[in-house]
Q: What sequence folds into this?
């Protein structure tokens, strides 16, 4: 009886201002819980001119349950408006689409909406595309031939990883593998604060030299932290020779173009083949065409 009276007295004598403060805090708790739950869902804008791929991603998002497509576009023309409207966590961009250059649009988006991250999803894993993606500030690169489950997991990783991380799918990552028998020369020794993630395992190394990172993750990295591809290993002269090979010029014609003897061109070609891990001139021509060098 006395305990009940004491409790009643304490409650009645509590300062009205303090009581109001406690009640306002209690009333706000469920709201914060809902907002935290909403933030756990990764909001994605998909930009691709192939609707089948977007529908496939949406289906995988539904299976995953933690990713949601808030908008889908057929080109990057109105992407900045869509980002302004939906404020997504991640934007998925196809590279080869009609309309404006996606790398230029992505660079503008990075400056206008730095809180939104973006990744590239392409049917082709070209060294030039990979380098351009890193330069414009992308957070990842995936091949369309990757498993959808791996792509979605990669998007989730991009949404929560540290700034400067570059997430790659398994097939893209394979393009940045050093040769099994390296020649002992690396194309950069600078340390970098950015890191590279395997889209499947999530392993990463930061603040390491290129040699240390290659030993830990199997990836070659340049002094600026960018993934180093096979094309990056070529000298300027070798790139020029490869470009002319892609145009279909013979060794003699290339020699005339560069004012070098056919024997010198043969030496360049041999070194190019070793660096690109190809065995025939036809493979060199296909490589040059695939990378767009023959169009230069």
A:
């Amino acid at each position: 009886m006395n305990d009940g009276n004491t409790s009643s007295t304490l409650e009645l004598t509590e300062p009205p201002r303090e009581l109001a403060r406690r009640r306002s805090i209690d009333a706000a708790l469920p709201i914060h819980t809902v907002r935290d739950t909403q933030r756990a869902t990764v909001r994605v804008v998909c930009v691709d001119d192939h609707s089948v791929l977007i529908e496939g991603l949406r289906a995988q998002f539904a299976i995953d349950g933690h990713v949601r497509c808030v908008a889908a576009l057929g080109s990057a023309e109105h992407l900045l408006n869509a980002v302004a409207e939906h404020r997504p966590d991640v934007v998925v961009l196809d590279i080869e689409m009609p309309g404006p250059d996606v790398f230029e649009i992505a660079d503008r988006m990075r400056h206008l909406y730095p809180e939104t991250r973006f990744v590239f999803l392409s049917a082709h894993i070209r060294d030039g595309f990979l380098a351009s993606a890193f330069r414009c500030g992308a957070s990842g690169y995936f091949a369309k031939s990757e498993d959808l489950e791996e792509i979605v997991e990669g998007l989730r990783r991009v949404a929560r990883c540290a700034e400067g991380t570059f997430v790659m799918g398994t097939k893209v990552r394979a393009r940045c593998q050093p040769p099994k028998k390296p020649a002992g020369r690396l194309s950069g020794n600078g340390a970098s604060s950015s890191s590279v993630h395997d889209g499947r395992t999530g392993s990463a190394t930061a603040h390491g030299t290129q040699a240390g990172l290659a030993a830990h993750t199997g990836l070659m990295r340049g002094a600026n932290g960018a993934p180093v591809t096979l094309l990056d290993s070529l000298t300027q002269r070798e790139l020029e020779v490869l470009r002319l090979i892609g145009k279909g010029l013979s060794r003699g014609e290339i020699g005339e173009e560069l004012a070098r003897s056919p024997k010198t061109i043969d030496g360049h070609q041999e070194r190019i083949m070793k660096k690109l891990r190809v065995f025939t001139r036809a493979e060199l021509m296909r490589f040059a065409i695939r990378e767009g060098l023959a169009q230069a």
Notes: The first strand starts at residue 42 and ends at 47. The chain has two domains: 42-230, 234-295.
